[in-house]
Amino acid sequence: MKLLPKGKWARLRLGALIVMLVGVFLQFHVYGLGHLLTYRPQEGDIVFQSLPEGPLVDAIEGITGSPFSHCGVVIKNHAGDWVVSEAIGEVRETPLHLWVVRGRGARLDVWRWREMTSRDPQTLKAALTTYLGRPYDFRYAPDDGAIYCSELVFKAYRQAYGVEFGTWEKLGELDWRPHEAFIREMENGALPLDRPMITPVGLTRSPLLEKIY
Q1: If we measure between CA atoms, which residue out of 195, 192, 169, 194 comes closest to residue 66?
Q2: Exposed e or buried b for every residue in 36-55, given b needs 16+ CB within 10 A?
Q3: How many Å apart are CA 42 and CA 57, to the nearest integer?
C-alpha cells in the first residue's frame, strides 16, 4: 500500500499542509522558547496563561473579564528542574517549558511577591505538596476537598507565610449573566451567586505582587 498521494498536485498539497503544520508548531514552540530564554525564574513566581479555548475556559475568562484562565507557582522539583505547581485535572507539577507552550499563543505573564527573595522557598514547596493529587474543583467552592488553580496559589502562600494575595469575590459580583446557562449546567441547575472565589486576575490585583515579565 502506497502511503504517498499520487499525482503532482496531490503531492504539492501534502507538502503545503506539512509546511503549514510545521510553521504552526514552530510558531508556538519558538515563541515559547523565547520566553524560556528571556524569563529568569525564581522559586515562588506566580505564572499566568490563557488556556486553549473551550466552554470552561471561555466561561472563566468571560466571567472574570480577563484573558487569564490559568495560573500556577514556579518551583524547583527534587531533581532541580523548573516546574509549575498547578491545579489542572488534579494538583500536579508540570515542567515549565511544557507549561509555557501549552498556553494559547504560548503567552506567559509573571508576578512576583516582593518579599519572596528573603523567604525560604522550601516552606512554600512544603505547602504546595500538601495539595498534590487533589482533584480539580470545577465548582470553584472555597473548601479544600478539591482545588482550582488560583485557589491553590492563594492557599499555599497563606499556609506557608501567612500572606494573602488578592481578594475573594462572590460569583454574583462578576460578569456571570452571559454564562448563566453554563454555570447552571455545571451546578445541576443551581446558580450560586453568593459563592466566594479567588480568580487568577484577582491575584494580579494584589499590591503585594509586582509584574516582572
Answers
A1: 169
A2: eeebebebbbbbbbbbeeee
A3: 28
| 149 assigned to some structural domain | yes
Q: Are both 159 and 207 inside the same structural domain?
A: yes
Looking at the structure of the chain, the number of domains it has is: 2
Do 131 and 189 reside in the same domain of the chain?
yes
Domain that holds residue 26: 7-38
Residues β-bridged to residue 83 = 75, 95
Residue 176 falls inside a structural domain: yes
pTM of the complete model: 0.85
Of 209, 202, 208, 200, nearest in space to 107 by CA: 200
Which residue has 460578569 as its cell numbers? 175
> Which tens digits make up the pLDDT trace of 9-44?
545 454 444 444 444 454 545 555 666 679 999 999
CATH of the domain at 155: 3.90.1720.10
